[in-house]
Amino acid sequence: MSKKHYTIPVFIPELACPFQCVFCNQRKITGKQLVPEDSEIIFIIENHLKTFKEKERIIEIGFFGGSFTGIPLQQQQHFLELVQPYIKKKKIQGIRLSTRPDYINDKVLELLKKMNVTTIELGAQSFDDEVLKKSYRGHTAGQTTEAAKQILDHGFDLGLQMMIGLPGDTLEKSLATARKIIDLGASNTRIYPTVVIKDTALHQWYKNGKYQPLTLDEAVDWVKEILPVFENAGVKVIRVGLHPSEGLLSGDELTAGPFHPSFRELVLTEIWWNLLKTIPEKTKHKTLIIHVPEKELNYAVGYKGKNRKRLLTRYKAVKFIADKQIARREAFFVV
To answer: In the chain, what are the domains?
Structure first.
């Protein structure tokens, strides 16, 4: 039996980031305004640990919300030291963090290794230098490549995050970024559609007509092409779409762009429809029974039953059955 994996998220906004990426207002995206106090971090850890029921489990602390290695080394060490008692007692098995490619160097990596960090996620965003430049990202694709190699050379698991729909981006460029992430040896990734957040350069460009985000349908169409590329390469896709913070859910901070709290489900609905639409059309008096993998049942049925409704235009009745014998994303149907 595989162990259940949990990540306890602790958000550490980098208050002094010198870069002004056009899409970024980190505090509004994460919903976190201030660096948490030690007591708050400990409370977050303790509170999460109480909720995990499985005995066979792997638990990580995740320092997210900014570029962790961009804060002073002494402060990095302080946050990491708060976790060490939990690691010594084997309540927590590792630490993961997110940062920028140009905030990686040997000194930083040596500290992280000493403090039991296991996974480092880099915000690559794109491996197209034109896209990076237009987004005022502040680093090149080459710097990301070099940082990724350093991380792997020091024995960490590598995560490479990407964004779609940045200024100058195309589906072809995003697919090339996905393939580069695989080539560099990343074990995991996150796919974020670019949205327009208030008080960002992108917000101003959007108001001036200089930038148009992807529509929700366009973003879904892009990611339904990208996601299988990672899956086929064995790269774990940790997240698809932005985390639904309060500001994004309420719309208070979101100006435009393809945000949806169930974005991944929308994508998988369309991936499944690509399979299901090949089922031959029959007359309306027929009943269709479809066997699908147990873990994929909801996606096969579709977001709000979308795929079932599509098939009901062809059949009198449609029944989906979760089949433990099917491991891959495939369907067997009986008419």
So the answer is: 4-261 (3.20.20.70), 269-334 (no CATH)
Beta carbons of 148 and 112 less than 8 angstroms apart:
no
CB 58 within 8 A of CB 3: yes
Separation of CA 301 from chain center? 23
Residues 6+ apart with CB under 8 A from 69: 76, 97, 99, 100, 103, 104, 108, 112
CB atoms within 10 A of CB 228: 14
Cα–Cα distances in angstroms (integers) from residue 33 to residues 23, 42, 66, 199, 223, in the given order = 17, 18, 11, 14, 30
Q: Is the pLDDT of residue 66 over 80?
A: no
Three-class DSSP category at 60: strand
- Residue 315, CA distances (Å) to 53, 271, 305, 335 in order: 42, 21, 15, 9
| CB-facing half-sphere around the CA of 110: CA atoms within 13 A | 3
Which tens digit of pLDDT belongs to each residue from 137-178? 999 999 999 999 999 999 999 999 999 999 999 999 999 999
